[in-house]
Amino acid sequence: MKSKAGTDTEFFRTEKIPKILLQIAPPVMLAQLIQAMYNIVDSFFVGKYSESALTALSVIYPLQLIIIALAVGTGVGVNTYMARLYAQKMPGQAEETAGTGTLLALGTWFIFAIFSIFCMRPYVLTSANTPEAIESAVIYGQIVCIGSIGAFLEGNWTKVHQSRGNMHRPMVAQTVGALTNIVLDPILIFGLGPVPELGVAGAAYATVCGQVAAAVITSFGGVGRLPERTKMPLYIKQIYWFGYASIIMQALFTVYIVILNAILAGFSDSAVTVLGLYYKMQTFFFIPLMGLQTCIVPVLSFNYATKSYARCREIMRDSYGFSCVFMLVGVICFVFFPVQLLQVFSKSSEVIAIGKNAFPIIGASFIPAVFSLMTPVFFQAIGNGKISLFLSVMRQICCLIPIFWLLSLIDLRFTWFAFPISEVLVGVTGIVLYYKEIKRDFDKGAA
After folding, report:
1. Which residue windows are transmembrane per the record (predicted)?
2. Strand pairing partners for 192?
């Protein structure tokens, strides 16, 4: 198994870049598409059950984002370090990295389980008001957090497979997990035959079952082996050195969504709804971009470790190009068909009126977003987490939030310009830093 894992990565070194991307990206994109469908279907069924249940999902959503941030961020660290070890012909250490990642996933899950037992109700009370919503959120949150072992393990094991160039097993796992959730949602929420009506608890159990199903599939070849106890701190240090930027970047998403919602709430609930609808639809249009982000990390890490700097530059050039082409579809839909997009989810005249103005402006940010989102991945893949983190903090905190707030002082119609302005600022900054890094590496290689 070890030798196979090592040889599976050789095509990172020799195959043409477009062929690599076209080979490994579609499975990831398909899995993400199914995940996006699950998110919408999940909310659909819960919304049909009760308003308090839907509120519960909204209250617990930030916790789920943090779970994803820790699971995927740690997995990114495992992925990046394993790809480097394979490039350096050290498959044994790569397997020990996978085993360490498994142990970290279990430890992080345990912390969340303890949190859910002692801190869930105080957390919920900060965001929910009615007794029904509070109880629903506590029930949903405790089940999801205690049952998050599947999410943590799958997040790690998926990245282990991806570090070897195996994108198909994670795709199958995420597909099975999402379909399990979608099928179980209506059965467990509303009841069917001998299955009792569980309400919001049913939605939580469906989520947990889907995550566990995905984890079981990725466990084959993903568990790895534990290193000697004396070596464990070194592996943990390397994993979080490569993964901490991704963890913080994912967590920042929670922060800025909460702040933007608070600003928009000063205008109307409909304004908040428009932002929420944007993020639901954005998931679909950003799938190619997110898929490429996932796929280029092991390819870049492998080639950077072998000092193939020209190949790294080629990877980024092709990734930028493919992403821009894909994002044009989103630009066209948001700029020319905003009303049609909004009417899929809402018939409210106020929501449509606000969204009709907002969506074309936000759509203009999609092309510069390619550069502000792809460039941090380059720095993350080569082990420069500081630059990656800097660009992400600049995008989500330093640019978007202050500009959004300043423009909100003028009028709601102007707030949406914060999206293209911040994407352009961060995109330009990222490109400048990227070319400086590439030049430094070439100079180093020539020395």
Report:
1. 20-41, 61-82, 103-125, 137-158, 170-192, 198-220, 241-264, 284-306, 318-339, 359-382, 389-410, 416-435
2. 195
**Residue 413 scores a pLDDT above 60:** yes
224-233's contacts with Cβ under 8 Å and 24+ in sequence apart are 224/95, 224/96, 224/97, 224/98, 224/99, 224/100, 224/101, 224/102, 224/160, 225/95, 225/96, 225/98, 225/99, 226/96, 226/99, 226/100, 226/103, 227/93, 227/96, 227/99, 227/100, 231/96, 232/100, 232/103
In this predicted structure, the answer to whether residue 2 has a pLDDT above a threshold of 90 is no
- At 192, phi and psi to the nearest 5? -155, 120
Polymer length in residues for the chain = 447
CA 229 to chain centroid, in Å, comes to 32
Report the alpha-carbon distance of residue 397 to residue 403 in Å, rounded. 10
| Calpha distance 84→142 (Å, rounded) | 38
Tokens of 436: 């400086």
User: Considering only CA atoms, which of 362, 202, 349 is closest in space to residue 278?
Assistant: 362
Would the CA dihedral through 74, 257, 144, 277 be positive or negative?
A: negative
Q: How far, in Å, CA of 134 to CA of 139, rounded? A: 9
Greatest pairwise CA separation for the chain in angstroms: 73
Which pTM value belongs to this model?
Answer: 0.68
Q: Pick the residue with more confidence: 315 or 338?
A: 338
HSE on the CB side for 328, CA within 13 Å? 6
Rounded to whole angstroms, the Cα distance separating 294 from 24 reads 10
CA distance 144 to 22: 35
Q: Could you tell me which of 72, 9, 78, 69 has the C-alpha nearest to residue 238?
A: 78
- What does the buried/exposed string (b/e) look like for 118-152 if buried means 16 or more CB atoms within 10 Å of the residue's CB? eebeebbeebbeeebbbbbbbbbbbbbbbbbbbbb
Per-residue model confidence as pLDDT tens digits over 277-298: 787 788 788 888 887 887 787 7
Find out whether 229 and 239 touch, Cβ atoms under 8 Å: no
Q: What is the CB neighbour count within 10 angstroms for residue 174?
A: 27
Measuring CA to CA, how many Å separate 394 from each of 277, 373, 390? 24, 11, 6
Which two three-digit tokens encode residue 259?
């702040």
Of 370, 373, 360, the residue nearest 332 (C-alpha): 360
